[in-house]
C-alpha cells in the first residue's frame, strides 16, 4: 500500500470493513498492524470517505477513550485521525458527532510527547485548507497549541510552532494566538536548540505579518533583544525569519527606534554576505525598511554594508535582485551614499539590468534614477541631461560625456592628475570657508604654502576677502618656515601649532579633501539675486539671467564669427595658471555653449528659476525652460518649452521645435 496505485486497487476491493474488524482483535500486534495499514491507506481522500461511511471514526475515537487497556495504540490511532483531519467532509462528520471535541479534550490532558507532537503535526497538515482552519478555530484548537508551548520538550515545541504558523492564516486564530502565544514564543527564543529557534521565529513571522497589534505584543514581551541574537543563529531559516520579524516591527516607530539602538544595521551586514538566497532577500528587504533614516544609511556606509548589497544586484534570484534594487533605491537617497554606491559599481550593474528585458524591474529602474538624481555629476556625464528638479549644488563638476564602460573619477582623483591637453573639468563650489573656525582642510592648504617660494605665491591666486584671514596667512607662512628650520636643526618630531586658538592636529592622511571656494561664482550669485530676483515675471527673469551669463562669459558672439571666438586658448591659460585640469567656473571669462549653459543652470537653481540642462554634440549645450505666455485676449495658456539663447542673441527665447531652436542646437 506504499504505492498509490495499489491503494486505489485495494479500495475497490472494499478492504475497510475487514481492517476495522481487526481493531477488535484480542492480539495487540494484529490491532497495531491494522492501524498502521489504515494509516497508509487513509492518505487517499476517497478511502477517508469510505472510512467515515463504515463508522471507522467511531472505532478510532473509542480506542482513544480507552486509556487503560488500549493506551499503547493511541499514537497509531492519532496518525489515522490526523489523515482524516485533512479532508473537510470527514472533519465535518467528526465535528457533527462531537468527535472533534472529544479528540481535542483527549489531547489537552495527554502528557505523552509523541502524542502531542503527532497531534500538532496533524493540525499543521490539516490547517492548510481554509475551511478546515475555520472548523478548528470554532473548536478552539488554539488552546491546545498554547498548552503545547509550555511543555519542556523540543520536538513538541517545534511541532506546536509549525501548527501556529499554519493556523495564522485564519485572522481570528491569528488574533488569539498572537495575544496569548507571542510571550511564550519569545521565551522559547532563548532555547539552545536551533530547530526550536527556527520554528519559533517562523511562527512569529506569520503572527506579525500585516498585524500591528501582534507586532506591538512582541515589543512589549521584550522580544527585540532575543530576535537580534537570533541573527547569529546557525540555521539560515532562523536568520531569515528573524530578519522578517524585525522588519515587521519596524513599521511602528517606537519599535523601529529600539531595533536601531540594538544595532540592526551592523547586524545585517553578515546576512547580506550569506550564500542563502532567502537570507539575502530578507536582509536586502530589511535594509530597504531601515535605510529610510539618514543615520541608518551612515551606519551602513561606515559598517561596510554597501559592498555586499551592491553584489546582490548580480543575483540570478529574482526576489533577491528585486529587494537589492529596492534597498539601493532607498540608500541612494542621500548624496554621500549614492556616490559610494556608484563607486562600487552599482550604477553599471543597474544599467546592465535595465538593458535586459527579463531581469529589469520597476525597482531597478527607480534605483538607477535615484542614484543619478543624488549624484548629478555622474548623471550629467552619463545621461547628458539634468531636469529642473535636479538642483546643482556645491561640489558638482562637468567632466564631459563618459564613454560606455568608462570609469567615472571623483573630483579629488581628477584634481591629482597632471595637466594634460584634454577637456577641462569645470567644477562648482560657491561655499565660502568659515572665517571664525578654520577647518583642517584650509589649515592643511595654508601649511602647504611653505613649500612655495615667495615669488611664486602670486600664482596661487588666494582670494581672501577678510584682512584678518590674509594676515593669518602671512603669519602662518613665516611661522611655519621658521618652525621647519628649527625642526631640521633639532631633528625632532614636534607638532606645529599654527595659531594659539587652533589646537587641532592636522593629519595629512585623514583630512577630507575639499575643492577650493569659487569667490567669483559667489559674486555672480549675489549680483543675480539683487538684480534679477526683483523682476516681476519669470519671463523677465530668464531673459535678464541669460544676458547676465552671456556678459560674464565673453558677451554676444556673431554666428559668422563663432570660429574666431578663441575660448579654448583662454581656458588653456587658466589651466596652465592653476597647474590643473580642474577649473572653477568663475575663472572662465570666455565661455562657449556648455560653459554658459552650466553657469545659467547653477545661478537659476540658486535663485529659484526652473530650468533643465541638456548636453549636445561638439561642445554644444543648452537650457530649456517652461514659460507661460499671455495670449492677446489675456487668456492664460499652458506653459511651453523654450530654449534660452546664451550665445548669439542672449536673452532670446527660442520655442522648442522651431527652426531657430534646432539651429541653435547644432553646428
Distance between the termini: 86 Å
Percent helix range: 55-70%
Unreliably modeled segments:
435-473, 491-511
Rg result: 38 Å
Shape label: elongated
Average pLDDT number: 85
Structural class: mainly alpha
What share of residues are in beta strands?
under 5%
Number of strands: 8
Strand order of the largest sheet: 1-5-6-7-8
**What's the total helix number?**
35
| Sheet of most strands | 5 strands, antiparallel
Write a structural description.
- With 667 residues, the chain is mainly alpha-helical.
- Among the domains are: 263-374, Leucine-rich Repeat Variant; 520-558 and 590-665, no CATH class.
- α13 (171-188) runs antiparallel to α14 and α25 (346-355) packs antiparallel against α26.
- The longest helix has 24 residues, at 467-490.
Index terms:
667 residues; mainly alpha; Leucine-rich Repeat Variant; three-stranded mixed β-sheet; 4% strand; repeat; ARM_ARMC5
Secondary-structure map:
Elements lengths: L3 H9 L3 H7 L5 H14 L3 H9 L2 H10 L8 H11 L3 H9 L2 H11 L3 H14 L3 H9 L2 H8 L5 H14 L3 H18 L5 H15 L3 H9 L3 H7 L5 H14 L3 H9 L2 H9 L4 H14 L3 H9 L3 H6 L6 H14 L3 H9 L2 H10 L6 H12 L2 H8 L1 E2 L10 E2 L12 H5 L9 E3 L12 H8 L19 H24 L28 H13 L6 H15 L14 H12 L3 E3 L8 H15 L4 E4 L5 E7 L12 E5 L8 E3 L3 H7 L2
Parallel strand pairs: 3-4
Antiparallel strand pairs: 1-5, 2-3, 5-6, 6-7, 7-8
Helix pairs in contact: 2-3, 3-6, 5-6, 5-8, 6-9, 9-12, 11-12, 12-13, 12-14, 13-14, 13-15, 14-17, 16-17, 17-20, 19-20, 20-23, 23-26, 25-26, 32-34
